Automatic annotation (TrEMBL):
The keyword Amino-acid biosynthesis does not apply. One of its GO terms (cellular component) is cytosol. GO terms for molecular function: DNA binding; DNA-binding transcription factor activity. InterPro entries: Cro/C1-type_HTH, Lambda_DNA-bd_dom_sf, TransReg_Diox_bact_type. Residues 14-68 form the HTH cro/C1-type domain. Keywords: DNA-binding. The keyword Calcium does not apply. PANTHER family: HTH-TYPE TRANSCRIPTIONAL REGULATOR, METHYLPHOSPHONATE SYNTHASE. This is Helix-turn-helix transcriptional regulator. It comes from Aerosakkonema funiforme FACHB-1375. Coiled coil: none annotated.
Length: 80
């Protein structure tokens, strides 16, 4: 599995959770204590977050890291 695919699917899941809350990238960035452009890069699959950043984003979105990653794994399985 190409790692870029994993980054892209993680970004899609972050964006899905963010838009479900009707939050802008700027608002998520503020709540997660990150920069908006970094959120944008994550959502487009251009960056791969550290565990610390993944924790900050999951916490801001009100989900656990495991729930976030489980959704990504399900997307991976569906693509295969």
């Amino acid at each position: 599995m190409p790692l870029k695919k994993l980054d892209r699917l993680l970004g899609v899941e972050i964006q899905r959770l963010r838009t479900a809350k009707r939050w802008s990238q700027e608002h998520l960035a503020e709540v997660a204590n990150l920069h908006r452009t970094y959120i944008s890069q994550l959502e487009r699959g251009l960056k791969s977050p550290s565990v610390r950043v993944l924790y900050q984003i999951a916490t801001a979105l009100g989900v656990t890291m495991s729930a976030l990653l489980e959704a990504v794994e399900e997307s991976l399985d569906a693509d295969e």
